[in-house]
Structures are given as C-alpha cells and as structure tokens.
Amino acid sequence: MKILKFGGTSVANSQNIFWVENIIKKESAKHKIVVIVSALHGVTDKLIKAAEYASVKDDSYLSILKKLEDQHLLLVKELLPILEQSSWLSFVKKHFNDIEDLYHGIFVLGELTGRIKDKIASYGEFLSSNIISARLQYKGFDCLWMNSADLIKTDDNFTNAKVNTDLTEKNIREYLRVHQNQIIIAPGFVAQDENNNATTLGRGGSDYTASLIAAAIHADELQIWTDVSGMMTADPRLTAHAKPIFEISYHEAMELSHFGAKVLYPPSIQPVMTKNIDLKIKNTFDPDAPGTLVSHHLEVSENTQQIAVGVSNMSHIALLTLEGSGMIGIPGISARLFQCLNHEKINVILITQGSSEHSITLAINEKDRIAAENAINFSFADDINLKRVSPVKIENGLSIVALVGENMKNRSGVSARMFGCLGNNGINIRAIAQGSSERNISIVISENDIRKAVNVLHEEFFESEIKQVHLYLCGTGNVGSKLIRQIYDQNQYLRENLLINLRIAGLSNSRKMIFADKGIPEEEYHHWNEYGQEASVHDFTEEIISRNLRNSVFVDITASPEIPKVYEKLLKRSINIVACNKIAASSDFEQYKTLKNTARNHNCNFYFETNVGAGLPVIGTINDLIKSGDKVTAIEAVLSGTLNFVFNNYDGSKTFSEVVAQAQQEGYTEPDPRLDLSGTDVARKILILAREAGYPLQFDEIENISFLPEACMQGNVENFYEKLSEYENHFKSLLANAQKEGKILKYTAEFKNGKAKVGLQHIAPGSDLFHLYGKDNIVIFNTLRYSEQPLVVKGAGAGAEVTASGVFADIIRSI
Ligand code: ADP
Ligand code: ASP
Ligand code: MG
Question: What is the pLDDT of residues 211-240, one digit of tens each?
Fold first, then answer.
C-alpha cells in the first residue's frame, strides 16, 4: 500500500484536481492507496483570518466566508455532473451554515480560543476531501472517504496538538483492516483530543497526517505531491537557480525543513524514518519529473563532490540572550531557561552558548518574543535583582539561514567557506550554531540580508558553474563605453573559463540612470537612455544599497568630484569599488587611508590601478613588492601619456596648441587638458604611487615646476587653446633650449628620499627615459631588491581602450 498526499495548490481548483485524478488513477491501478488532501489553496489562511476579524467584531468575515462558500460550490459544479450535484451542493451549504453559526458565536463573544480556531480550521480539509472523494466515486473508482480526525488522537494543545502515536496507529490499522477499498481518501491536518474536540497538527500538518498513516501500516512508500519538483537546494522563491535534490537522507530533510524548507512539514519525517519507509516528494504538475527521494539507504561517500545538500531559510526570528557572571558554573541555568519557555509553549529554534558559559543565546519565533521576555524575566527575577544575570536581551527583525548536508561531517573548511563568502558580501552574522552531528551550520542574520545570503551560499555551494557579479557603472564617456563593449564581448569567455557572469546591474551617467538586477541585455543597452530615470548620485547609491545584491562592484569611470564622496558608504556595505577616477586616491591622505581601511574592515576591495599608467600594471607591481617585503626607495617616471605625446610630437612643424588639440581628439587627455599640462595630473599620480609605496604624502608637498604660463590656466577650455597660441614663442624656446644641448623634452615625476617633484626636464639620449614614444609611460622603481638594475614598467599609458581594459582587470580582481 502507498500513501499519497496532495497539497493545497494541487487541489486548488478543478483544473488542478484533474492532474491529481490522473495520478491517483495510475497509482491505484498498481496498488491500494490512501490519499490525504489539504484544504484548497489558501482556505485555511482565510478561515483563520475571518475568525480573527469576527473576534474583533469586524463583519468583513462574512464576505470572506461567502467567497469561500462560492469557491467550494463552484468546485462541486465543475467536478460533478448536474445530476449528482444537488446533494453535494446541499452538503457544502449545510456546512457553511454551521461555519457561519460558529463565526457568529465568535463575533458575539468577541473571543477566539485555540479550540474554536481548530474547529473552524478543520473545515478546509473536511470539505476538500469530501468533494474530491465524490468526484472519484463518480468517476467509478472504488473509493471511500475516511475521517482521519476520528482516528488521529492528540492532546488538547490546540493548533499544534501532540499525537498519541500508539493509539493513533492502532486506530488507523484497525480502520484499514476493516475497510479494504482500493482508494481511501481522507483529510489531512485534522485530529481529535480525548474528548473528541477537533484539534489540528500545526500549519502544514497534512504532510504529517500522511506520514502517520504510512508509519501505522508500514506502507511501501509515502508520496508528497506538491507544486515543485521535489525538495530543492534552496527556496525557489529566493533563488532562481535552486535545483531539485535527487536523493537526500531523512536527517538532511529534517534539518532543511526544520529551518524553513516549507515543502515538507518537519514532524512528518519522524514517523516514516522510524519505519524506514521511503518518502518521495513529487510535482503534481510534472509527474514524470524524478522529484526527491528521502530514504535511509543513502550511502554518503567521503569522496562525493557535493558537500552540502541544501540551504534553507526562516524569517521572523527573534534572538534572546541571557547573560551574566552569575551563570558561570551554576548547574541548571539552561534547564530553568528552557523550562520557562516550555511552560509558555515557546518553540526554541536554535541555541548557542559560549564555552565561558557567561551567556546563552536562543532563537525563537518573533511572535513569541514578548511572552518569552516576560516569562524569563519573571523566572530569573531574583538573579536579576542580585545582578547575577541581566534582564533578557531581545533582538528582532532577524532570519536564520542553514547550510545542511551529511557530507559536511569531518570536512574542514566548510564553515570558513560559508563565513568567508557571507563576509565578502557584507552580511553580518549575529549568531552561529552547529550541531555536533555537523550536519547543519545555522546562522542568524538580519532579515534584510536574507535573499542575498541564500543566493551567496547557493552560489558558493551549489553553483560551482557560475558566479553572478553585479556591476554598477558610473560614466558612459570614452572609457565607460569602451568598458561596456569589452564586458559584452568578453562575458562568454569569462563564463566558460573563469565561471563568472558579469551583469551590468546599474548604469548611470550625468543625465540618466537605470537598474536591472539580472543585467542589462546587450540589445537594450544601445538605447538605455530612452528608458532611464533622471540621474542622481545619491539615488544611484541608495538604490544599490537597498537592492543588496551579492558580489557587487561599483565602477567609477568618471572624473567627477561628486562620485568619490559615496565610496565610503558603499565600502561599508562591502561593495567593491573600482575607480579610474583619481580624485579619491589623491585626496587628503587621511581620506585615502580611511577608504583603504574601510575596504579592509568590510572584506571588500578598493582598486584604482588605472589611476597611474592606464592599463599598465604599476600599482599592482608596487603592491606585490611591498607585500613580499621589499621597500621602494625611489621612483622615476614619465606618467603623462598626454604630455609624452605632446612633447614627442612638438617638433616645430605644428604649433603647441595644435599638438595639444590632437592629443585631446585622440582621447589621451583628461576631459580638461589643463590638468595634464599644468602637471597636476602627473603630481596626483606620483602622489598615489608614493602612498601605495607606504609614504604618507600630501598633494601640496609635491614640488611642481610648471612650464605652463599662469595665464593659460584662466578661463574655460576654449580660451585655453587661444592662450596656448598666444604663448607659442614660449613653447618654442622650451624646445630650442633642449635641442641646443642635444636633448629632448620630457615631463617627469620623481620620488626620492620621501620627497616628490614633477616638471619638465631635458633628457639626454643615454637616459632610460629617452626612448619613449607616442603616449607611452615609463615607471622606474628602485627598491631594496632592485637596487642594481631597477624594475621598469613601460608601455601605452593613455587611451580609452587600454584604460578600459585596466578597469576591467580591476573588476575581475575585486570579486
Ligand atoms: P503544499 O501546499 O503542496 O503542501 P507548500 O506550499 O506547503 O506546498 O510547500 C511547497 C512550497 O515550498 C514550494 O512552492 C516552495 O515555494 C516552498 N519551498 C521553500 N523551500 C523549499 C525548498 N527547499 N524546496 C522546495 N520548495 C521549497
Ligand atoms: N491546510 C493546512 C494549512 O494550510 C494544512 C496543510 O495544508 O498541510 O496549514
Ligand atoms: Mg505543505
């Protein structure tokens, strides 16, 4: 014999019941079956809600009941032929009359006890099972309706009654011995206490009914038919990547359901587990899908790749902590604590206690927090007065996330991986519990982080295939547009080779901004301006924070002074920052340091390789030298692609102004070329290099010997070109002076003995700086290790394409 349980969605309406009927037909052709059904989807919730309204004298309960009645009448009409309808329509009406009488009582008395709640809640299953039974009989099945409430005996803990297993099993066995129909159909969830009052087995309890019956008769199998294709690796409502688990042990299933995998009601595992009955979870709407097998056979091999079977989550959690020096070494404190919670019928979901015994922390359902607080403070009143313990501390708005798997046993590094990936995503862990079975690691986090945490863990443990990275790009100018092109072009390669998928989850320029959690598709990017909203740095930042997506990188591809102001806020949320904008790294030293420290303290990265030498590995090289224990003693460099281009091309054939304009046209200059020509940009770069080498330099300590006449710095960029033309003779003489000595002009930067300076130099043919063409940069590092021959980095130091690729490399490094 097999037991089949169909959940609320499976019996929600006639269309769904036709699926159920087909499954019953197939199974009952092979063996006798017992079918347990839930109430129609949502009916239990509505019955309870309506009762709550009635109890506060809100007559809107009447319209809810009316709708429920209509829903059931419609079902009768759709499932039965006209000739057979009338008795069943009267059946439904009669019971709704009874229901209405009960509600009227609640309304008049203004009182809703657990006992009444169970009485009314039990109507949902009573009606659904009867109507479906009528349908099966009409279709010619040998089907009998069984009142499971008469057989399942419980205590009188209404709404969550405890089953008297021995008596229940005896009743069920006896009933099924006497009644030998091919199909027995019965309501789930419902039971009776000793005095034959209706009780229920707790929300979701129809699974439990089915399991109790399976265990009572040693069924061959228990099948739980629901609306998903099995128990999944995570709640499918939280992550689109959740996959059905093919096989799972009873204990794993128990842990997952205990910590929130709603697909199975936790108490339903115990009865079948004790009798070693296989439990299958199947999809009513995709009956051929394999579903999940929960069984005792599952051999767990030490070698299996899969460490965890699933991650589950539970919301509305409160954490309560009892602490005090008086708790150390005193036996019985925890016993007292649990006793008083037990007395209030408060379920403890998770417990942690430090080995110092100084405090004990429990997770409970948020709805129980006030009762818990009162009960504990009352029970420990003397200890609180004597200051042996402090009044209990309660925190709300929390959730539990649990990682579950038999294979986690004896494996080192699982929790390190778990906490590592959560930490990298800025998810703060409030409490941790790991059972000594090592089958489960549970953490308590803020409710706001729940979706992110489930996705991060799912990605880490179940999607070894692909890591989703969320990029927020600011700036769609020269470099930004090249970067976006490179991202689209390179994404397939990254997916296949590095197992990462870059999603442009947000995009902003100075005019418009848009968000797309799943990434802006390439086709849509081309006209994103049309549907973007008005840009605002503040709103862009707040939106990123509130979306709270995992593996986020904020990319500043602007020269705007406004954007670096939000870096610190983002870093505090563990959002990585990649900037080609130099303003932050060259700002006040304290500010630079704060950003670096904030990144470190929040497990994220602040990268700005392209601040110096565009895509050349300059900052990365310094970092590697320092990390490996070297010390930079001096740096000599040509750091301005623009100035190098300008002085390489300024040979007297064109005016200085024309050469600068050409550099700007070719995209080598800063948006305002005066930043390059004045040496300010070079000064910022040597400043950043010195800082990265470990010297706390400030910008105004850099000596800048400018070659640009003061007048050229006045006015706007157009005036600037006019001014350059006016001063052509000045530039000519700079060139002539160098040529006289057989040298060339280079704008150089130097850092030596803790001091930095920038300025125009005459460079002799023998110098390392001489053979430097086009827009190339060169950085010559003298270090303790590179003392005889310096370490030299040289190559194109400007240009949108190479800068974009440097930003790209920083993005990949940051995640
Ligand atoms: P039924 O009415 O059939 O008893 P439930 O609503 O009680 O169904 O349980 C099925 C639902 O559980 C699914 O639709 C899904 O949204 C939710 N769920 C949560 N966690 C999981 C999980 N790990 N695997 C499968 N479903 C889950
Ligand atoms: N109808 C009950 C509930 O909604 C029991 C069940 O569906 O399993 O909780
Ligand atoms: Mg259920």
Answer: 999 999 999 999 999 999 999 999 999 998
Rounded to whole angstroms, the Cα distance separating 584 from 587 reads: 5
Instruction: Give percent of the chain above pLDDT 70.
Output: 98
Pairing of strands 431-434, 440-446: antiparallel
Ligand sitting nearest the alpha carbon of 226: 1
Closest atom of ligand 1 to 8 CA is 2
DSSP string, 595-660: HHHHHHHTT--EE-GGGTTTTSSSHHHHHHHHHTT--EEEEEEE--HHHHHHHHH-SSSS-HHHHH
Q: Is the pLDDT of residue 11 over 60?
A: yes
Compute how many other C-beta atoms are within 10 angstroms of the C-beta atom of residue 177. 9
SS3 of residue 794 by DSSP: strand
CB atoms within 10 A of CB 755: 13
Top mutation candidate among 263, 284, 404, 450 for ligand 1, by most atoms within 8 Å of CB: 263
Local structure of 333: helix, strand or coil: helix
| Superfamily per CATH, domain 2-41+127-227 | Acetylglutamate kinase-like (3.40.1160.10)
Distance CA 278, CA 168 (A): 21
Residue 582 φ then ψ, to 5°:
-90, -5
Fold classified for 310-462:
VC0802-like (3.30.2130)
* DSSP at 429: P
Domain at 619-798, CATH homologous superfamily: Dihydrodipicolinate Reductase; domain 2 (3.30.360.10)
Is the pTM for the entire model greater than 0.90? no
Specify the DSSP class assigned to residue 25.
H
The residues that are catalytic are 685
How many angstroms separate the alpha carbon of residue 229 from the centre of ligand 1? 10
Ligand nearest to the CA of 200: 2
Reading the block at residue 271, the tokens are 């009865």
Average pLDDT over residues 790-804: 89
d(CA 521, CA 528): 10
Element (H, E) at 450: helix 450-462
Q: Which residues of 360-386 are buried (b: 16+ CB within 10 A; e: fewer)?
A: bbbbbbbebbeebbebbeebbeebbee
Residue 196's CB is within 10 A of a number of other CB atoms, namely 10
**Which residues, other chains included, contact 645 with Cβ-Cβ below 8 Å and sequence gap of 6+?**
659, 663, 666, 668, 774, 775, 798
User: ∠ CA 417-418-422 to the nearest 5 degrees?
Assistant: 110
- Fold type of domain 467-611: Rossmann fold (3.40.50)
Q: Name residue, tokens 């006639």.
A: 14
Which residue's alpha carbon is at the smallest distance from atom 8 of ligand 2?
204
Helix, strand and coil content of the chain, in percent to the nearest 5, comes to 45, 20, 35
262 within ligand 2 shell (Cβ under 6 A): no
Give the tens place of pLDDT for each residue, 322-377: 998 877 777 778 888 999 998 888 989 988 887 666 889 999 999 999 999 999 99
111 token code pair: 């009182």
* d(CA 8, ligand 2 centre) in Å: 7
Q: Do domains 310-462 and 619-798 have the same CATH topology?
A: no
Alpha-carbon torsion 220, 225, 228, 232, what sign?
Answer: negative
Residue 440, CB half-sphere, CA atoms under 13 Å: how many?
22
Q: How far apart are CA 223 and CA 211, in angstroms?
A: 9
Amino acid at 542: E
- The predicted pLDDT at position 327 comes to 78
Domain parsing of the chain, residue ranges = 2-41+127-227, 310-462, 467-611, 619-798
Q: Which ligand minimizes its atom distance to the CA of 265?
A: 3
- ∠ CA 691-694-695 to the nearest 5 degrees? 65
CA dist 218 to 14, 134, 214, 267, Å? 32, 27, 6, 17
CB 7 near ligand 1, within 6 Å: yes
